[in-house]
UniProtKB/TrEMBL annotation:
Gene3D superfamilies listed in its UniProt record: NAD(P)-binding Rossmann-like Domain
Family designation: Belongs to the short-chain dehydrogenases/reductases (SDR) family.
Keyword set, alphabetical order: Oxidoreductase
Keyword flag Oxidoreductase: yes
Superkingdom field: Bacteria
Ketoreductase domain mapped to chain residues: 3-176
Keyword Oxidoreductase found: yes
MF (Gene Ontology): 3-oxoacyl-[acyl-carrier-protein] reductase (NADPH) activity
Top-level EC class as recorded in UniProt: oxidoreductase
PANTHER family with a match to the protein in the record: 3-OXOACYL-[ACYL-CARRIER-PROTEIN] REDUCTASE, SHORT-CHAIN DEHYDROGENASES/REDUCTASES FAMILY MEMBER
High-level lineage: Bacteria, Bacillati, Actinomycetota, Actinomycetes, Kitasatosporales
Organism the protein comes from: Allostreptomyces psammosilenae
Name recorded for this polypeptide: 3-oxoacyl-[acyl-carrier protein] reductase
Pfam families documented for this protein: adh_short_C2 (PF13561)
SUPFAM superfamilies given in the database record: NAD(P)-binding Rossmann-fold domains (SSF51735)
Amino acid sequence: MNRSVLVSGGNRGIGLAIAQSFVKAGDRVAVTYRTGEPPDGLLGVHCDLSRPETIESAFDEAERVNGPVEVLVANAGVSRDMLLLQMEDQDFLDVVDTNLTGAFRMARRAAGGMLGARWGRLIFVSSAVALMGAAGQANYAASKAGLVGFARSLAWELGSRNITSNVVTPGAIETDMVSGVSQARREAVIQMTPLGRTGTPEDVAGVVQFLASEAAGFVTGAVIPVSGGFAMGH
């Protein structure tokens, strides 16, 4: 492999594991980050998905170094959990703007180059919560569920140009976000997971690698759970 790959939110957790897996495969990889410092060994481009101008500058820098983006992994996301009656408009809008509108902005920017090349891979990292729902996560679940309809619409729009569009829905994965969940909630999710354990960021990265490969050239519009069976059947 020697493709130009851009992973949003690739500076930690699932995004970092995905980015590192592409590096190991021989690809040229850039990752976006909003705060902190980019990880060593990866091209870091600053980006705030709620600010369109930073998306444009992030793509410009990634493409200046690595060439036109051929694989986009829209992974970056935020959560702001609270029950419905406590949730303010801004709590809902901010999460949707980052998780869903941000993915739209990135896909729109990447699609132009992919159309010209008549090849591309769009991969959206959603969540098992998008399919099942969860109390206190109406904003997060709505934003992540929206990625499914968005990706499947792109599968129709772009498929004739050999551009695939797919969604991965992780379950409980050992990341900072999951570590902040209460022990009671963690145990409840594990009890609802047939494999009886949490997953690793590398579990998700392996599936993303498949979707980006030539082996998945006839896979588009798919929603693939990486959840140990949690929320299966949805």
